[in-house]
Design brief:
Layout (H helix, E strand, L loop, with lengths): L29 E2 L11 H11 L12 H11 L6 E4 L1 H13 L6 E4 L5 H9 L3 E4 L19 E4 L11 H10 L5 E4 L20 E6 L12 E5 L1 H11 L9 H10 L3 H24 L3 E2 L6 E5 L5 H10 L2 E2 L12 E4 L3 H15 L2
Parallel strand pairs: 1-11, 3-4, 5-6, 6-7
Antiparallel strand pairs: 2-8, 7-8, 9-10, 10-12
The structure holds 4'-deoxy-4'-aminopyridoxal-5'-phosphate.
């Protein structure tokens, strides 16, 4: 194995991939580390996947993913041609970075944000300028005025959970009217404001969303981008130069069905939001600082306890949360919102640790 790198493309030298949160098979684990939805998908999704499994798996899926794009388009009041489908929003982001951000200037992004953005930059040789979040860990759009190759932000941001109002997104779009502004709305359904309604007015706006969080479909791998037709065409060009069929037949059927069960979507989002608010106040009672969150997770820190030590101690108690060994947030923990029972188990474990 030691000689293996000699076979590798030189481009792999120094490449540091994204590290996803661990998925351990530990019985009775309270898993609050990867921002999955604690509730299963709508029964209609499971029924649609079951039906699709019995009908036509020997055939390739629709390379245009029309059924899914139409479902998303009618939910958001768009044309299907303004929607691009991908194998998880990570894949959509990968296509978008290639399609829009390989420019002669660095792109701008927050210093603390979804860490995959830097990985795409490294993979494609895109330079990035990191714009510091302000003292309250918020994005200050006034800092995004410099000439650049494009802008990418997550709204709400991750791992902070803080949302940016639409007026700020509009400022960003106007300041950078000659570049693509990519707004990653992975967590928007838990209380954020979506920028999808701005698409008709801003030719430089690309919104990316995922079905992994609010639609409880992390295991199905479906995400999409929404934007004016000329942006979607660029994504299609990249996709069709790489993989014609990012959505398989089961994913397409399940993902489209998820948009057909509004009541279930609203009920599960409301349950997550209610649990988040309760958990925030319970953690504050234990002395944690809790950042305001519009996402399905909380970023917290405890002034009396080292975050890495706390994460390890919680793991011993079979509660998994996420700790990032990164500048500015190495003393913070990111806790995904679970069911009421999972949140109660987390609070009990924290109680035992911080009150010791
Ligand atoms: N964007 C953000 C901000 C995320 O946190 C995640 C989840 N890790 C993703 C995109 C990717 O989600 P998925 O690939 O499951 O659609």
């Amino acid at each position: 194995m030691s000689d293996a790198p000699s076979f590798w493309s030189p481009a792999l030298k120094g490449l540091v991939p994204y590290t996803p949160g661990e998925q351990p098979a530990i019985e009775g684990l309270v898993k609050l580390n990867t921002n999955e939805n604690p509730y299963p998908p709508s029964p209609r999704v499971v029924a649609a996947i079951t039906a699709a499994a019995q009908d036509g798996l020997q055939l390739y899926p629709d390379p245009q993913a029309v059924v899914f794009r139409q479902a998303v388009a009618s939910w958001h009041g768009l044309d299907a041609g303004q929607v691009f489908a991908g194998n998880g929003s990570d894949e959509v982001l990968a296509y978008a970075f290639f399609a829009f951000f390989r420019q002669d200037r660095p792109i701008l992004m927050p210093d603390i944000s979804y860490s995959f953005y830097k990985v795409y930059c490294a993979l494609y040789g895109i330079a990035a300028e990191l714009v510091p979040l302000d003292a309250e860990m918020r994005i200050d759009v006034a800092q995004y005025e410099a000439p650049c190759g494009g802008v990418v932000i997550a709204n709400p941001n991750a791992p902070t959970g803080t949302g940016l109002p639409l007026a700020d997104i509009e400022k960003l779009l106007q300041q950078q009217s000659r570049r693509v502004v990519l707004v990653d709305e992975a967590y928007v359904d838990f209380g954020g404001e979506s920028a999808i309604g701005l698409i008709q007015r801003y030719p430089n706006l690309l919104v990316v969303q995922t079905l992994s969080k609010s639609r409880s479909l992390a295991g199905l791998r479906v995400g999409f981008a929404a934007g004016q037709r000329h942006l979607i065409e660029a994504l299609e060009l990249v996709k069709d130069s790489f993989n014609s069929y990012p959505l398989d037949r089961l994913a397409m059927a399940g993902a489209a069905a998820a948009y057909g069960d509004k009541a279930y979507f609203e009920a599960t989002c409301a349950a997550v939001i209610a649990s988040r608010e309760l958990l925030a106040s319970q953690l504050q009672d234990l002395g944690f600082e809790v950042f305001p969150s519009q996402a399905n997770f909380l970023m917290v820190r405890h002034p009396g306890h080292d975050a890495a030590t706390l994460a390890a101690a919680l793991r011993e108690k079979r509660v998994l949360v996420r700790h990032f060994s990164l500048p500015r947030i190495e003393q913070h923990l990111r806790i995904s919102i679970g069911t009421p029972e999972q949140c109660a188990a987390l609070v009990a474990a924290c109680h035992a640790l911080v009150r010791r």
